[in-house]
Design brief:
Strand content of chain A: under 5%
Radius of gyration of chain A: 14 Å
Structural class of chain A: mainly alpha
Number of helices of chain A: 5
Shape of chain A: globular
Largest sheet of chain A: none
Largest interface: A-B, 34 and 34 residues
Oligomer: homodimer
Chain lengths: 73, 73
DNA sequence: TCTTTTTGTAAAGCATGCTTGACTTAAACA
DNA sequence: TGTTTAAGTCAAGCATGCTTTACAAAAAGA
């Protein structure tokens, strides 16, 4: 799932460490998010959205509709 | 983190199993989300938002700003 | 050039998200 | 009353999110 973190951060001239501190997560987490290693949890996505004063949908790109089934009893 | 899943589901007269199937997750996952056992991943939150044609912010309530620090090198 | 800052990455470990299978209880209904 | 459907929950297990510590390499600045 792609995101605009690197751009939003660059617009503010923040380092990954700066952003990490503002979000209350580690620098490695910010790096992992920017390099697409994994997606944030929903609570962290909310923090990010709040910090940049944007909707979650404006920062994170919808995943490409997966179509995976779960057997469901 | 609270959410409006149970209400949105009730408005459509769906069972937890119906919703689970529409989302491609297990019934237990839907139940856990409704009963507040945990929050969905961001990709699942997007699926939910897409299904109900609402923004994530309209379904999930912002968490109460945690203020936890991470040591950061 | 030398030094500092920033970014990327890795490994180990703990917490959370989600699965399957199974069981219980209550409500709906024949 | 007996049967079925819906909801709640538990346990074990695997996948993902995030931590700390550590190191390497690129970029920025003296």
């Amino acid at each position: 799932m792609k995101n605009r973190l690197r751009v939003l951060r660059a617009e503010r001239d923040w380092s990954q460490a700066d952003l990490a501190q503002a979000l209350g997560v580690s620098r490695q987490t910010v790096n992992a998010l920017e390099t697409g290693k994994y997606d944030p949890s929903l609570p962290l996505a909310f923090k990010i959205a709040d910090l940049f004063e944007l909707a979650i949908e404006q920062i994170f790109e919808r995943p490409s509709a997966d179509n995976q089934s779960a057997s469901n009893d």
